[in-house]
Amino acid sequence: MGSFGPVSSGDRERIVSYLRMYEGNEASEYSFTNLFIWSPGDQVEWMEGDGYMLFRTKPKTRTHYLMAFAPDERIGAALEEAVATAEADGERFSIHSLPQWYKDKVEAIVPGRFAFEREPHHDDYIYRVEDLVNLTGKKYQNKRNHINRFMRMYGGRFAYADYETGMAGDCMDIYARWLSSKEETPELLSERESVKRALYHAPELGLAGGVLLVDGKPEAFSLGERITEDMAVIHIEKATPDIPELFPLINREFVAHAFGDLTWVNREEDMGDEGMRQAKLSYHPARMVEKYRGALKE
Fold first, then answer.
1. Rounded Cα distance, 29 and 38, in Å
2. Cα angle: 183, vertex 187, 190; to 5 degrees
3. Of 23, 39, 138, 279, which is most buried, counting CB atoms within 10 Å of its CB?
4. How far is it, in rounded angstroms, from Cα 19 to Cα 31?
5. CB 188 within 8 Å of CB 227
């Protein structure tokens, strides 16, 4: 068996060479950025085998395997390696965050080996860029009202700037102010580390970013990247709680400035959080990337 290890910035080239095997994969978990920034908190690990690459996470006490990246003829061997590793560790094998096309591929390659079920809290929300930028129609009236209210109060006092790593400290301060309005949980502390890694490693990760300044002070920021030829993913979006209208504004401005030439934006999953689910639904997704989990059949 191979050996699993944490995802480091120096692993980017090797890992990306495998991620590119599935060009057009829209599932947000499988960008190098997400694997890297969540590596400490969710303990994301990787291992390269004979013509394949495995990933697993240990967010709490249970290990979850992710998609195995391999040519079709090696997927069966890759999954059996994952099963054997889990059993050697004394754990029951489970595989998570599988888009439907990958689930279907596995069922065709190793029929009857795994039982699958839907995992809706990991579904990705997909939006049209033109919808997020233009906010046209009755369904976006509330978003336009928030932005108009902001403009009446701060119209001549705000500016948008492309993110640079010199702004990382100010953005972490935004995150701290946002966090102060929440009940602190282990998940949020884990998120804090992921935000910090993204901000300080943005150039080497190839991330685009935008910052909103009010009276010259940074008050909101967002980071994302292109994941397919025509889709971007938004990894992080935070704003201070002092100005509620900042969230719809940074959403619109960042997408317009960074990804206005694309068709789709992936705003990732809701993780089963009802507040996050309602916030994502309020932007009226055009479609979802449905996810599945699998276990060995008895």
1. 10
2. 115
3. 39
4. 7
5. no
Residue 59 has pLDDT above 80, yes or no: no
* Digit-coded pLDDT (tens) for 121-169: 999 999 999 999 999 999 999 999 999 999 999 989 999 999 999 999 9
Q: Count CA atoms within 13 Å of residue 279 on its CB side.
A: 15
Q: Identify which of 23, 64, 34 has the alpha carbon closest to the alpha carbon of residue 195.
A: 34
Residues paired with residue 220 on neighbouring β-strands, in sequence order:
212, 239
Kind and range of the H or E element at 84? helix 72-88
Six-digit token pair at 279? 């916030």
Is 135 within 8 Å of 143 (Cβ atoms)? Answer: yes
d(CA 163, CA 209): 5
- What are residue 114's DSSP bridge partners? 296
Beta bridge partners of 228: 231
| Per-residue pLDDT reduced to its tens digit, 100-121 | 999 999 999 999 999 999 999 9
Token couple for 232: 């971007």
Which of helix, strand or coil describes residue 137?
coil
Strand, coil or helix: what is 11?
Answer: helix
Task: Report if pTM > 0.70.
Answer: yes
Q: Is 173 exposed, middle or buried (0-12, 13-18, 19+ CB in 10 A)?
A: middle
Q: pLDDT tens for residues 172-196? A: 999 999 999 888 787 787 899 999 9
Identify whether the C-beta of residue 66 lies closer than 8 Å to the C-beta of residue 122: no
**pLDDT tens column, 222-249:** 999 999 999 999 999 999 999 989 999 9
Quick: pLDDT tens for 23-42: 999 999 999 999 999 998 77
81 and 49 Cβ atoms separated by less than 8 Å: yes
Residue with token string 């059993």: 87
